[in-house]
Amino acid sequence: MTDESTPDAGRDFIREIVAADLASGKHKSVVTRFPPEPNGYLHLGHAKSICLNFGIAEEFGGRCHLRFDDTNPAKEEQEFIDAIQRDVRWLGFDWGEHLHFASDYFEQLYAWAQDLIRAGKAYVDDQSPDEIRLTRGTLTEAGQNSPFRDRSVEENLDLFARMRAGEFPNGTRVLRAKIDMGSGNINLRDPVLYRILHAHHPRTGTAWNIYPSYDFAHGQSDSIEHITHSICTLEFEDHRPLYDWFLDNLPVPSHPRQYEFARLNMTYTLLSKRVLTELVREGHVTGWDDPRMPTLAGLQRRGVPAQGLRDFVRRIGVAKANSTVDIGMFDFTIREVLNKSAPRRMAVLRPLKVVIENYPEGQVEELEAVNHPDDPAQGTRKIAFGRELYIEQDDFMEEPPKKFFRLAPGREVRLRYAYFITCREVIKNAAGEVVELRCTYDPATRGGNAPDGRKVKATIHWVSAAHALPAEVRLYDNLFATPQPEPGNFAAQLNPNSLETLTDCKVEPAFRTDAADGAVQFERQGYFVRDRDSTSERLVFNRTVGLRDSYAKVAAAG
Ligand code: ATP
Ligand code: MG
Predict the structure, then answer these.
(1) Which domains does the chain have, with CATH numbers?
(2) pLDDT single digits (tens) 270-306
(3) How far is CA 539 from CA 290, 338, 342, 343, in A?
(4) Which atom of ligand 1 is nearest to the CA of 274?
């Protein structure tokens, strides 16, 4: 799916490399992969990686594989495997027949590990995980050789086979590469290739009692699949020498190249499956698809269109230096996409009753409203007008300050698509709160214009009390209150106002027949989408994003 219409940051350095490799004939076609670990739902950061990998394949006529890096059964689940596939498809990409799993290669990886043992390049270490950690050294100090480093090939092969067969408990032995405990790169200090784990794997069940490390599985899986460009995030830069070491020391079918780019970070957001898992487990959100979550499932439920995510990723570009994107840029992009497409509707979130005293009781008129001001193809609809209406509470003030131009005692305003009305009387309850306005309308202003040319300073939205549908509206705000949240200590950092639920809303009757899934603009309020919690008695809407252009404000403030 190429979105040529969207402004982008120009061709990035990875696309330059791919283009050059194709031009020079180094590769006939490009093969990329998106390699998620199925230990959680995909988030906005993954969207960047998906759009990059699948986008390059599409733009250069190659292909992109979806490969699950399912090497740690302690944390991985079938639910996540299913959700990830759903989310990649929803984002608009297709891996065709190239759905792969690192676990498909377990047998081959095991054989390659035996090759390393036979070549004297791997050994079984009986040290505990703590001992291995403590003898690894530091950035400034070399590590120490394991006392088990010089075992014979025969003994290593035997122990490795018995690890596989399940003879030893978790954590008692590992297989390590024999590289260099004095290397300046800690990843080359005899990295762990296999660990013992008696766990049920979603795909291989109990067939294996040992599992390969990420490092041992990843590059070799790339090689088996003939990936040409293995694109990952910057934290793997220091792993690249190890990635290459395996491919140089094993009889692999191809030698892919790894390239690193900066991961996406965004203000008021944490993009890490580990953190998102904690938010779900600790009950700070209702689930992985809570609309406040930066997961693709959450964003989808909040009403963010896939096109908006693709536009956002295109706009932020791909770079080599880490940075943090302003969440205002995200909102801006979503607003921009929805503004073009979302039909307009009227909805009153905090209703105030209005009675038009000179409008005949029982009379109903059908007034015409446009569905989209810039897109006549979206047509018009009829909306019912009657003697009793609802307007927004904050569109009225009893004692308006100077700059308040909306309804006030004695003041005339326009009701969108309908008439001019004038407020004649304010009715209050025992507590002194305004509960109803008595108004009059000018029948000559039907459609919203006065034949005598007189002007009003405000146009407000409304719904007919007799025709409106009841609704619940969920207003979402940033999940975190702090612009640069840190993992952990969520209680102190979460935004206590990230969800405001309004239960007494009134929406125009068009929603009875509108399609349930698309986003709409509630005029003057923002973009909303119907939530799956809706019932036939009561609609539920999620606010996707407000109308206010906060990005422009932020940008202007510099
Ligand atoms: P997390 O830290 O959220 O658990 P991860 O990197 O462990 O993410 P993986 O499932 O291993 O998650 O990631 C799959 C791919 O997505 C990897 O290539 C990874 O580099 C990329 N990726 C993960 N997070 C981001 C991000 N914030 N921005 C860009 N790419 C990302
Ligand atoms: Mg990972």
Answers:
(1) 108-213 (3.90.800.10), 265-341+474-506+533-558 (1.10.1160.10), 347-461 (2.40.240.10)
(2) 999 999 999 999 999 999 999 999 999 999 999 999 9
(3) 18, 21, 18, 17
(4) 4
